[in-house]
Amino acid sequence: MSTPTTTAPEDRQARSAHSANGGGTDVSTRLLRSAAKKSYDPAVDIDWDAPLDPQKSWTPEHRVSLYGTPLWDALDADQRHELAKHEACSIAGAGVWFETLLMQRLLKDFYDADPATDRAQWALTEVADECRHSQMFTRMTQVAGVPTYGPVPWVRRLSKLYSVVTWGPSAYATILVAEEVLDRLQREQAEDPDVQPLMRQVNKIHVMEEARHVSFARAEVTDGMARLSRPARAYHRLATALVSFLIVRSLIHPEVYSAVGIEPGRGRREALANPHYREMIRWAGEKILGFLDEAGMVKGPGTAVWRRAFLLPRRSRA
Ligand SMILES: [Fe+2]
Ligand SMILES: [Fe+2]
After folding, report:
1. Who's near 128: CB < 8 A, 6+ residues apart?
2. Would you call 106 helix, strand, or coil by DSSP?
3. pLDDT, tens digit, for every residue of 45-100?
4. 3-state SS, residue 195
5. Which ligand is nearest to the CA of 214?
6. 44 exposure class (CB count in 10 Å sphere: 0-12, 13-18, 19+)
7. What is the dihedral of CA 247, 250, 251, 254, to 10 degrees?
8. 195-224 tens-digit pLDDT
């Protein structure tokens, strides 16, 4: 398979430091220092009382799942604005859901560790970051006047098994998929002057703090895969692909469509068949798929799942 390789110098540095000490103490030490220097408290670093600008969108129109479809063409400007707001908040809701699963994973890792190590202290620091993020996303959704979405009920129930069926490389690889797909969308929104200032500020904070989490998780994946047997590597590959599929499918809750009078099942079907939306997902996952491919996570039976998730392009018929 041939996804582009985009390994940032910081990741290479993180990885070599991580490997050199057999499990991440140097990485954790560096990240703890970084967190001490620069962390945000959204309760005070965001002006929650600032009036919303009715002219600004919540996400660029070309990032809305129905963009380019006949259903989209039939919506008026107000409905397009409303759908964009619901979808932006739905993605934030998916972030809250997955941050909760990540916190469970980190606390399990902390439970098994010596609390005095930097690695264990980093786990707690990341939990603290994610607590603030989930509060921030939820509060933004409330300010937007949108329901708190999240995964559909069966995915919410099934994902209680997340921290049982994934650990080590598959846990951190799926965390990376969630974090980096959101990251690419959020960076674009944060830099777009036509996006609601509240949304831009929320995304700026998230992007900055997530950079630390990504460094840690990338090192966990690379080191973890190197230590596994062949059958174990195959398990982690498949588990990563399946969980990543659920993450991507949970970004847009079907109920967002009913906010603009579209039957949820129809809206979802049209979105999933929309080449523009499929390409958006591939673009959002491009960086992380490049890394996971390099780490040996994207091959075998899971490849078909990555394609169904739209994170890999469909096989050409030529
Ligand atoms: Fe986060
Ligand atoms: Fe994170």
Report:
1. none
2. helix
3. 999 999 999 999 999 999 999 999 999 999 999 999 999 999 999 999 999 999 99
4. strand
5. 2
6. exposed
7. 170
8. 999 999 999 999 999 999 999 999 999 999
Write out the two tokens for 69: 């479809």
- Residue 248, token pair as written in the block: 């991507």
The residues near 228 (Cβ < 8 Å, ≥ 6 apart) are 168, 169, 236
Say which DSSP state 149 is in.
-
Name the fold adopted by 58-308. Ribonucleotide Reductase, subunit A (1.10.620)
3-state percent breakdown (helix, strand, coil) of the chain, nearest 5: 70, 0, 25
Q: Kindly identify the ligand whose nearest atom is closest to the C-alpha of 175.
A: 2
For the segment 131-150, the average pLDDT, to the nearest whole number, is: 96
Give the closest ligand to the alpha carbon of residue 134. 1
Q: What distance in angstroms lies between residue 97's CA and the mean position of ligand 1's atoms?
A: 10
**260 Cα to the center of ligand 2, angstroms:** 31
